[in-house]
Request: fold
Amino acid sequence: MTQVHEPGSLDLSAPSVAVAPMLLGATLATGTGEDRVAVRIVEVEAYLGGDDPGSHAYRGRTARNATMFGPPGHVYVYRHLGLHHCVNLVCSPEGTATAVLLRAAEVIHGAELAWQRRLAAGVCRRSEDLARGPARLAVALGLVHADDGADVVVHPGDRAPTGRCPDARAATRQNLVLTPASGPVAIRTGPRVGVSGVAGTDAYPWRYWIDGDPHVSDFRPGRGAP
Reply:
């Protein structure tokens, strides 16, 4: 079922299941000047820490997931299978460890740089595929594991809640800016991609995407993970 979601302020101190639909249609930008790339977020997944068997934080804090336990308003960047980077926005009060995985986006600024990054990392034939999928999105934005913990500024409005930033240099270099959606978006929900066990079923319908958007990843309910 498609739902129309009205835009609103982005409060990253809220739980990830509340933040996730608000991120659809929002813009995330990295860098400045000629190094700036901006994407419009079209697909996300919510993870609820200790209450979610699909979350990296389900069994507690580790060196890998430490950023998730920090204050909201930072990015949690990890390597998937030792090959690809994935980018998450940390939500909820410090110690709660909830986050939203950014699954897919449309590049709306800095396409030339995004193309250069994607072609250096592998094959890319269509503009729709520049940031279509979590690993591609990370490459297009130029985010790597060294950016784990970088600070995010929410614009317009006040700065997102901040605190310890493990890599202040990365936060300065990337200049991560998140801008809320400017209008309503039609969204759909379903089970998350590539999550094993019950956490990847309809019992956890915490994947959200913009209905009909061509930049959403190939996965659809009933088709299995790509």
About this structure: The mean pLDDT is 87.
